[in-house]
Specification:
By secondary structure, the protein is an alpha+beta fold. It has a single domain (3-166), classed as Alpha-Beta Complex (Nucleoside Triphosphate Pyrophosphohydrolase), CATH 3.90.79.10. The chain is 25% helix and 36% strand. The chain has 4 helices and 10 strands. The chain has helices at residues 57-69, 121-125, 135-144, 149-163, and strands spanning 3-8, 18-30, 33-38, 44-45, 48-50, 72-73, 79-89, 97-107, 109-110, 129-133. The strands form 2 sheets. Strands 1, 2, 3, 4, 5, 7, 8 and 10 form an 8-stranded mixed sheet that branches. A two-stranded antiparallel ribbon has the order 6-9. β3 and β4 (44-45) form a beta hairpin. The radius of gyration is 16 Å and the shape is globular.
Length: 171
């Protein structure tokens, strides 16, 4: 997959043990808006999460979208957008270098497939819920609350995506 961005905090050393992870993110567009998670603090996240051991990237994408939005991804709608690579000291295990390969896919959903959510405890605690929002609004709002790495990651991705030519009429 094409590398779009590298977000390197440079807060680690090369002597630290390395932990690498692959995550998938779903860019789901309809009538100019994106399906995202809105948190109680007013921040937005693009749906997605980690690829489990033995799981394909596409299976993880389907699972994560279902868990976080309640919708099923349309099988033939998935298109690669690109990778955002994050490099930083691991927030869960200080003293460890963390490299996250975030793979972004544009995909469609079946609007009639709405199910219940299956959020993680941290997502529940943060009050996340699925909403449709305009990309410019997501960027503007996230810029006000940039305190978490995922807010930076998703905002940087959307700004890059916007600057490289996504067309509003194609969303």
């Amino acid at each position: 997959m094409k590398l779009l961005l590298t977000l390197d905090s440079r807060d680690y050393t090369e002597q630290m043990p390395l932990y690498e992870r692959v995550v998938v993110r779903a860019v789901i567009c309809h009538e100019g808006r994106l399906l995202v998670q809105l948190g109680a603090r007013g921040d937005y996240k693009i749906p997605g999460g980690g690829v489990d051991k033995g799981e394909s990237n596409l299976a993880a994408l389907h699972r994560e979208v279902l868990e976080e939005t309640g919708f099923c991804v349309l099988e033939d709608s998935v298109e690669e957008i690109g990778e955002v690579c994050e490099i930083r000291e691991d927030i869960k295990k200080p003293g460890q270098k963390y490299v996250c390969h975030g793979l972004y896919y544009k995909c469609g959903i079946d609007p009639s497939s709405r199910n219940g959510l299956c959020l993680t405890e941290s997502e529940k605690k943060a009050g996340y819920r699925p909403v449709w929002e305009y990309p410019d609004r997501i960027i503007e709002q996230n810029r006000k609350v940039l305190t978490k790495y995922w807010q930076v990651r998703d905002t940087e991705f959307l700004e890059h995506w916007r600057s490289t030519g996504y067309r509003k009429e194609n969303i």
